[in-house]
Amino acid sequence: MSQILKLLSLLFLITMVMGTQCHKDVEDFVSDKQSFKENVSIFPAQKIYNVNDTIWLRFTTTDKTLYDTVSKQRLPASSIKFHFGATLLPKFETPVNPTDGFCDFVLPSGVVESYVTNQSGTAASFEAGCDNVPGYNIEFGVVLKYQGVYVLNLPDGMRTETCNNQTSQYAPSLLRFVYNVADCNKDIYLSIPASSRKEFPEGFTEAQIDYKVAYALKVQ
Length: 220
Description:
Elements: H1 2-17, H2 23-27, E1 35-43, E2 48-49, E3 54-60, E4 65-68, E5 73-76, E6 80-92, E7 103-106, E8 114-118, E9 121-129, E10 137-144, E11 148-153, E12 156-159, E13 161-162, E14 174-179, H3 186-190, H4 204-211, E15 214-219
Parallel strand pairs: 1-14, 2-15
Antiparallel strand pairs: 1-3, 3-10, 4-5, 6-9, 6-11, 6-13, 7-10, 8-9, 11-15, 12-14
């Protein structure tokens, strides 16, 4: 049983970290009639933070709708649930696989957290939607614990599901979250020596930053 749990945890982290790369695989199992995309605010939005600083991610709407990139309009989503969260990835001059994770998280009250940490990063997510409030008002905190250069990834290419005991007008669809900022600190990532930025596929993290699903930062 412990081996199964370890495998599930690893698969969860890979999904969180490699969401952009897995879009094609995910899209094979979702509707092509809708494809949702939403902005996430990050505050304070800066390049350099200190140990014990908290970065807040916020997703809010005035109603229960999601923006559909196919129809170019917001669609009612009160019968839809999805996962929201983040993954902190160590990139340079960070501790090696700390037993307590690379960060702590501050989650909304009452949610059930999915958490995993290993040498590749620390991730947490929770299910959102399917409640009686009129809109989305999600705040998620990431407490920085160690010095180094990191990348903070949003869940990208997640699959929506229908709320329990409800009927949705949509088949399972793709939902992407992107940072609502002009600059995701690509210069911070490129400040890492090229020899320490080698990865497969080449340029993957840079592409994530350009697409605004990844936010580079330095902790001092």
